[in-house]
Design a protein that fits this description.
InterPro entries: PEP_carboxykin_GTP_CS, PEP_carboxykinase_C, PEP_carboxykinase_GTP, PEP_carboxykinase_GTP_C, PEP_carboxykinase_GTP_N, PEP_carboxykinase_N. GO terms for molecular function: GTP binding; manganese ion binding; phosphoenolpyruvate carboxykinase (GTP) activity. This is Phosphoenolpyruvate carboxykinase [GTP]. One of its GO terms (cellular component) is cytosol. This protein is of the alpha/beta class. 27% of the residues lie in helices and 21% in strands. Helix 17 packs antiparallel against helix 18 (625-639). The termini are far apart. Residues 1-21 have low confidence and may be disordered. Bound molecules: guanosine-5'-triphosphate, sulfopyruvate and manganese (II) ion (MN).
């Protein structure tokens, strides 16, 4: 222990290295550079990062990724050899990974934001209350967490250097990162989810986000599942926004390990956005064309596993409408010089929830993952395909199923699910048949409306509109939703998930709300804000609204509102569709519009109380006055109902 600590104590894990370039060059060459890449061509900051990481993690060799087809093949071969993936011969270039059952979702409780002052990272909760809007770690504990885990963590392994761009290469809205990892699964996934490889190295200067990732090495020395090494006991995900630094240890799953996604594009991204005056949000972006030919773009923030991918790829049931996809998870949005809000999707692929996805609910997602896709924790079929809950009608009776643990599984016999509820497909965006022609436009697409929404089984109507921007910000801040399988939360409790950003905030939530309020300046065209809820349930526990493609009926009303049609009634909570303004023609099932739009005084009095409690206990003094006033306004209106 002492020996290790002594050795690493000479390394400062930061980018202010003073060692000169030629020395670094020699040091890097003393590792075996697996693909013969000449590190001399790299900017010194990049070399410093690689060198510091290599000295800390002690890999056997370093591989600087070029993103090529041949490199990807090598990665896939390596993973097949180690049993991390198996091929799915039913499709074209598709693969299935099964993880250690202890590494299946994001771990929010082990995700930290590091700042000198705690209140810069998180709101200070009321005495005796546990804060739920992010976890803070001190710089000292941050360093210690790294030194407790990383020294020698890559021994016997290859260290991959993954240069990637969040956003189209060269767009002014894009940002560059380098992820260092010892997981070929992460490399192959990053190649799908981001623009990755030599073309990024060509653009790189000293301004990039440093992402260090190791799957780790359990302290016990016992590796339970050699095909999926991880260290769940010591998993930790660290962010230092002012240093543009992300450090992740112990997990290879999704947002824990594909560091461009939640860690960079949302947590570090939201902090950069605050500094630079734009928004980094957990939002899908879609384009919708109405039968009259007018096209609008809409962004929507729903919490994890609450319908973003489905809405982003929707097949409208209303005739004459067309939806096209710009992105399904993250939006970076900035006002242009004409005061128009423009959005880019910083990602290059989809890491989508598999269960529930089918040709009935989301045919475009099904088509997207027929080739070049890595599936994780879904079930497999005897004819070399995939299976999950929701695909019951799509497989023949002669086909047998192997569940995500690798055990034989029979529907109606086994009382488990065949696929893990957070099982996913990782597929390139370009495979989606309805990608928008402007999805890679470096200028971004113009946003006309922002939707908030969550899983609310009761009380919250199908759709309502905010009275103005400020009211909309309050609605976003008050969002709540049923917990899902995307993180470690158990059960179906209704949790606060403001702006769908609770797990992804990069700084103090009160300051984040103030930043949203500050976006409203003279000369800017503020998008209209709506709240939607596809998840109302009847007394029988069934959804009251058919959802999926039928959500086009709600988008139709939203489009009418964007065009200024007066198709609304004013209520205490906001503007709701006036009677007959939501089209129901051609709907295959009866829907109870009364229940879908019921605004119950008792329910909303309770809701207001709950929001007030949330503000007081969780946000405290950091709550902007304007948001407090909006809640008071809501309270008064509800009391007068
Ligand atoms: P993340 O990738 O975790 O951020 O999730 P997401 O917000 O993209 O959610 P996604 O679209 O993958 O949907 C998650 C689950 O919700 C799936 O099982 C869907 O089948 C289900 N779902 C999506 N849209 C609807 C809808 O309109 N109605 C109902 N009832 N379920 C839906
Ligand atoms: C989410 O949880 O919101 C996801 C999946 O999109 S992950 O990439 O694991 O964060
Ligand atoms: Mn998401």
């Amino acid at each position: 222990m002492f020996r290790v600590l002594k050795r690493v104590s000479t390394i400062s894990f930061n980018h202010h290295s003073t060692i000169n370039a030629s020395f670094l060059n020699r040091k890097i060459h003393s590792y075996q550079l697996a693909n013969g890449f000449d590190p001399a061509v790299l900017p010194s900051m990049v070399r410093n990062f690689i060198e510091d990481s290599a000295r800390l993690c002690e890999p056997d060799s370093i591989h600087i990724c070029d993103g090529s087809e041949s490199e990807n093949k090598m990665m896939l071969n390596e993973m097949q050899a180690s049993g991390t993936i198996v091929s799915l011969p039913k499709y074209d270039n598709c693969w299935l990974a099964k993880t250690n059952p202890a590494d299946v979702a994001r771990v929010e409780s082990k995700t930290f934001i590091c700042t000198e002052m705690k209140e810069d990272a998180v709101c200070i909760p009321k005495k005796g209350v546990t804060g739920m809007l992010g976890n803070w770690i001190s710089p000292q504990d941050y360093e210690k967490a790294i030194l407790d885990r990383f020294p020698g963590s890559m021994r016997g392994r290859k260290m991959y250097v993954v240069p990637f761009s969040m956003g189209p290469l060269g767009s002014k809205l894009s940002k560059i990162g380098i992820e260092i990892t010892d997981s070929p699964y992460v490399v192959a996934s990053m190649r799908i989810m981001t623009r990755m490889g030599s073309s990024v190295l060509d653009l790189i200067d000293d301004d990039f986000v440093r992402c260090l990732h190791s799957i780790g090495r359990p302290a016990s020395g016992i590796i339970e599942m050699p095909s999926w090494i991880c260290d769940p006991q010591r998993t930790i995900i660290l962010h230092k926004a002012d240093k543009n630094e992300i450090v992740s240890y112990g997990s290879a799953y999704g947002g824990n390990a594909l560091l461009g996604k939640k860690c960079f594009a949302l947590r570090i991204g939201s902090k950069i956005a605050q500094r630079e005056g734009w928004l980094a949000e957990h939002m899908l972006i879609l384009g919708i064309t109405a039968p009259n030919g007018i096209k609008r773009y809409i962004a929507a923030a729903f919490p994890s596993a609450c319908g973003k991918t489905n809405l982003a790829m929707m097949m409208p049931t209303l005739k004459g409408f067309k939806v096209e996809c710009v992105g399904d998870d993250i939006a970076w949005m900035k006002f242009d010089k004409n005061g128009q809000l423009r959005a880019i999707n910083p990602e290059n692929g989809f890491f989508g929830v598999a269960p529930g996805t089918s040709y009935e609910t989301n045919p475009n997602a099904m088509k997207t993952c027929l080739k070049d896709t890595i599936f994780t924790n879904v079930a497999s079929t005897s004819d070399g395909g995939v299976y999950w809950e929701g695909l019951e009608d799509s497989i023949g009776t002669n086909i047998s199923i192997t569940d995500w643990h690798g055990k034989p599984w029979k529907r109606g016999v086994n009382n488990t699910t065949s696929a893990h509820p957070n099982s996913r497909f990782c597929a390139p965006a370009k495979n989606c048949p309805i990608m928008d022609s402007k999805w890679e436009d470096p200028e971004g697409v113009p946003i006309s409306a922002i939707l908030f929404g969550g899983r609310r089984p009761e009380g919250v109507p199908l759709v309502y509109e905010a009275y103005n921007w400020q009211h909309g910000v309050m609605i976003g801040s008050a969002m709540r939703s049923e917990a899902t399988a995307a993180a470690e939360h158990k059960g179906k409790v209704i949790m606060h998930d403001p702006m769908a950003m609770r797990p992804f905030l990069g700084y103090n939530f009160g300051k984040y709300l103030q930043h949203w309020l500050n976006m409203e300046v003279a000369g800017c065209k503020m998008p209209k804000i709506f709240h939607v809820n596809w998840f109302l349930k009847g007394n029988d526990g069934k959804f009251l609204w058919p959802g999926y493609g039928e959500n086009s009926r709600v988008l139709d009303w939203i489009l009418k509102r964007i065009e200024g049609e007066e198709c609304f009634d004013e209520t205490s909570i906001g503007k709701v569709p006036c009677s007959n303004s939501i089209r129901l023609d051609g709907l295959k099932q009866e829907v109870d519009m009364k229940k879908l739009f019921k605004i119950d005084k008792e329910f909303w009095l309770k809701e207001v109380k709950e929001i007030q409690k949330f503000y007081e206990e969780q946000v405290g003094n950091d709550l902007p006055e304007a948001v407090k006033n909006e809640l008071n306004g809501l309270k008064e209106r509800v009391e007068q109902m």
